Amino acid sequence: MSQTIWIGAVAYDPKVVSIWEGMRRYFHEESHLAVEVVLFQSYEAQVAALLALPGERLPRIDIAWNTNLAYIQADAWSDKRCRPIAMRDTDVGWMTKIVAVTGGPVATLGDLKNRTLALGSRDSGHAAILPVYFLEREGLIEGEDYRTLRFNTDLGKHGDTGTSESNVVRAVLDGRADAGAIGSPFWNAVRTERLVPEGALTEIWTSPPYNHCMFTARSDLDPALEQHFAKALFAMSYENPTHRAVLEAEGLRQWIAPQLAAYAELREASAQQGFLTRPSA
Fold first, then answer.
1. What SUPFAM superfamilies does the record tag this protein with (predicted)?
2. Other C-beta atoms within 10 Å of 204: how many?
C-alpha cells in the first residue's frame, strides 16, 4: 500500500456510506491504494478541510468529492491552485427545467411576469443559483419581474438530497407557486418514476447545459498520488459486476476527465450572488 489518500464526501443520504464502502474496497483490493474516507455534514466543512493548511485545527483531506458549487468555491478560494481530477459521465450536460401546471396560466417564460416561481435550496446550483442567473439573462429579475418562493431545506448539501426540488414540485401542484425550477435529473425522475400524476406538469423552459460534480485535489497533493487515484478511477468498468454496483449507486457508468468550460455560468452566477465570498475563520 502507498501513502494514505484521504477522501472527503458529504453524507447527504444514508446510501453514501454504502457507496464509499464499495469505493474504498475497490481502491484497497484492486488498485492497491490506501484510501480512507471522511464523511462531512456540509460542503462548507468539506471545502474547509480541503483548503486546510498543515497545523490548522481542522480535519485535512487530500481529495474532495465536490458539487459544482463546492468545486468552484475550492477553486476560487485556493486562487485556482486546487486541481480538478475527474467527474462522472452523468455530470455533463445538466440543465435546469422550469415546470408549470399543464394548461395553466404559465406556458412561457413571459408568463412568469408578476407571478411566483418556486426555487430549491439557495445553495443548489441547479434549483436556485442558476435559475435566477439564467432568468436574468432572459430579462427577468428576481423581486422585480417575478416573486420567488424558496425552500431552503438541507442547506449545506447543495441540493444533493432532492428534498427542496420535491417541495418545489409540490408547491406548483397545490398552487402556492405558478412555476418551479428543478434540475433535469429530478425532472426525468418525476416523469419516469411517475412521482406526480401523468401529464400534470409541463416543462416550459430549459436552461443551457452545465456540469455538476468534480473530484478536486488540494493544491499541494503529491501529483504522483493524484495520478494513481485518477488512474484507478478510470479503470473502473461498468462491465465488471462488482464495479457496476458501486457505479450505479453513485449514478454513473464511467468516470471521465474534467470538462471545465461548462462551469463558467455557475462561476459567474455564484460570484454575483455572493457564494464566492469566503467565510471568515
1. Periplasmic binding protein-like II
2. 19
